[in-house]
Write the structure tokens for this entry.
Amino acid sequence: MSEFPSEFEDLLVRPLIGHLATVRPDGAPAVTPMWYAWDGELLRFSHTTRRRKLRNIEHDRRVSLAVHDPEKPHRYLQTRAVVEEIVVDPGGDFYHSLQRRYGWHGPAPDSTERVIIVARPVAYSVQNG
Amino acid sequence: MSEFPSEFEDLLVRPLIGHLATVRPDGAPAVTPMWYAWDGELLRFSHTTRRRKLRNIEHDRRVSLAVHDPEKPHRYLQTRAVVEEIVVDPGGDFYHSLQRRYGWHGPAPDSTERVIIVARPVAYSVQNG
């Protein structure tokens, strides 16, 4: 594993919009904006059980997350990661914690169908602004 | 091809930061923030000839671009696309046009090694904010 680039950790700690790439069963890439949480070791994402990204991850657990600095768009962190667990989130507790982290006050109509995608970074690449 | 979601075209017209996903030769996904240009039919990106993303695309021409609305982060457009051409950009003319589009006044040290990645969307998915 490449060493963690600690001078870029703010991009995982701040509630920024990440972009999570997965690979579809046909081998083509997919990418969508995602909220995330970082505990210093693992990345966590919330997802409904119905959507395509989860099917992609069940097929291939390798993912990639990019987060850029909105104040300096050329400064970014990319991590490649492997999904270790997909954990049920009954009641959407983790999802609600993400809503609080991101200051979101909108609806969460599908909170009862939520899972937590837990991913361990295995490599990093960065670019400075 | 899924129909173009015209009510989301502003996300391609505005100079926003896109995230372009590719697939590495080992099958894992990669994603980085990218400038882009949209002419109503094709997406164009600038890239140096040295970097990994170009090697990924030469191996598998399927890519995916996500652009979200910075004012409404839940509103986004994802397109799957196929790279049709990789065109040399001697002198970096296209790269300089992207710099103007994005109001960038920083350095462009590698402008002599630039290529244009030309991608045709083949499917779209959207989410509203």
Notes: Residues 6-127 of chain B form a domain with the Pnp Oxidase; Chain A fold (CATH 2.30.110.10). Chain B touches chain A at residues 17, 19-23, 27-33, 60, 62-66, 68, 70, 73-74, 76, 78, 80, 106, 127 (CB under 8 Å).
